[in-house]
Sequence to fold (289 residues):
Amino acid sequence: MNASRSHQAHLLTGVIAVLCVGATAFAQEPLTKAKALYDAAAYEEALTLLAPSEVPEAQQYKALCMLALGRSQDATGAVETLISAAPTFEPSADDVPPRFVSLVSAAKKKLLPGIARKTFNEAREQFRGGNREEALRKFDLVVLLAGSSSLKDSPDAEDLRTLASGFIELARATTQVRQEAKASETAKVAASSAPAPGPEGPPEVVQPVVVRQSIPPVPTGVSGLGSPSASVRVQIGADGRVVSATMQTASHPLYDRMVLQATKDWLYTPATLNGRPVPSEKLVTIQLR
Fold:
């Protein structure tokens, strides 16, 4: 009798353990369960769980299961969906079979040029619409994609990288203009509280004089210049060198970037106040046509 009860208790314990395991498995996310099924070579069951999911990692495991089942064409489609959703995805050669790595490489060469162009166009529209934060995120992605091994040899890669970098520089310059405008207002307030001129008369101010100010030519092939002129505001230190520069009137992202780069070599006889060199600013207008 006692042996029978002991046997029943063991059976009950086993049933409870099985139920607990089943409950835990049921509570797991489908993707986690699908990974476990993939590791157990239960590919069809894994695909059934993954079918409703569109997240990139689910596409990865769909492709892996399909490859294991010999469904190469379906695996290619899953990988292309994966790259469309996550263009920076890079598989680990240590964790996946070489065939999967090859599929990802082929999908990137096929899709990344179009993805980069589309992302750039979206970013440009958002930039023009004032959504600078999202635009910069996408411009950064364009630069990243253009430098990837799958895209860097594409005819469009260098142009996309240059244009996206130009917009990034323009956004940073715009931010800097706002910061400098705020600093300028602070300086004006400080100046207004300064002592009035003495009996010797008003202070003598001499504006900076150009020593070296080379303007880069507009590159051949650059189109879409917004106006016949552009302007750049330079902050000049007491030593006559340019401390910072921002585009006051933009022209084209590529050319604006060239101008800002050129200002680093500009030199002036510094402005003076009562004969003493002082920091100053100057607005330089550039005729484009």
Observations:
- The radius of gyration is 32 Å.
- Confidence is low (pLDDT under 50) at residues 1-28.
